[in-house]
Amino acid sequence: MRELPQGLTPPSNGETVEKENQLSRRAMLSGAGAMALLGIAGCSTTETLDLPQLDQTTTGSVRPIRPAISVDKNITGADLMYASLTDGGFQVPEVPWQKVKPEFRRQIVVDQTGEAPGTIVVHLQERMLYLVQPGGDAIRYGVGIGKDGFRWSGRANIQYGKQWPVWTPPPEMIQRKPELVKWQGGQPGGLTNPLGARALYIYQNGRDTGYRIHGSPEWWSIGQAVSSGCVRLINQDIIDLYNRVSKKNPVVVV
Q1: Contact by Cβ (8 Å): 45, 77
Q2: Which of 173, 179, 220, 251 has the most CB atoms in a 10 Å sphere around its CB?
Q3: Catalytic residues
Q4: How confident is the model at residue 82, as a pLDDT?
């Protein structure tokens, strides 16, 4: 233990607590002042940002409690996230985001998956996809999933991705829907293509599972079980997810 210089005595527990409280109060005031300056400078987002609650520790000092929702500096409001955009020569239509349930809109949440950063986790029952981030957060997207009897679950990885992919209905789907025979050679990528603006191809043990994480022009199907097994996102959301992942990202579907 390090000795104190002569004439100095260590502070009592009460003095230590008081100093910690003073520092905590100064930090809170400093943080509040910074938030006020950001608002004046026009740097605030269109999302409501609540100041963190405080938790009393056993030593008497205070510490911030992690908020349930944090804010991604690259995401402002839903009106911008789901606005019309030009991509790959196509004009992706605006999504009427007010008609999409709030829980299915893209947002940042505290990660509760327990998976490593970079992992894509699909919760079928929740109709949610999580992209785990470093630091304890996850980006959450609402998804549409497969109908009963068409779902897949397990651990795999993203083998590769494609922009505005060609969609080729499998033979068994053509048997169920003979009108799709016109696309047995492949439907070119485009605004009406069922795979939407992007597709991520799921492989397990080096073999194609036949399942994809992809976009969809049918934004109203998000949150429902309507697909033939694939996981579908709003086109604006699959573009965002595609830009954040790379080859070999782990995928967990539960």
Answers
A1: yes
A2: 251
A3: 214, 230
A4: 93
Spatial separation of the C-alpha atoms in residues 88 and 242, rounded to whole Å? 14
Q: How far apart, in Å, are the Cα atoms of 110 and each of 18, 23, 67, 191? A: 32, 27, 8, 33
In 195-205, which positions are buried (b, 16+ CB within 10 angstroms) versus exposed (e)? bbbbbbbbbee
Considering its fold, how many domains does the chain have in total?
1
- What are 108-135's pLDDT values in tens digits? 999 999 999 999 999 999 999 999 999 9
C-alpha span between 77 and 91 (Å, rounded) = 20
In this predicted structure, the answer to whether residue 162 has a pLDDT above a threshold of 90 is yes
* β 250-253/120-123 pair status: parallel
In a domain, 3, yes or no: no
What φ, ψ does residue 214 adopt, rounded to 5°? -145, 170
In a domain, 32, yes or no: no
Strands (E), the chain: 54-56, 62-64, 85-87, 90-92, 107-110, 120-123, 128-132, 137-142, 145-146, 154-163, 198-204, 207-216, 225-227, 231-234, 250-253
CA angle 16, 20, 21 (to 5 degrees): 115
In a domain, 167, yes or no: yes
Distances (CA, A) of 133 to 53, 113, 215: 23, 11, 21
pLDDT value at 58 more than 60: no
Contacts of 163 by beta carbon, 8 Å cutoff, 6+ apart? 88, 189, 197, 198, 242
Where in the sequence is the domain holding 120, given as residue range(s)?
A: 78-253
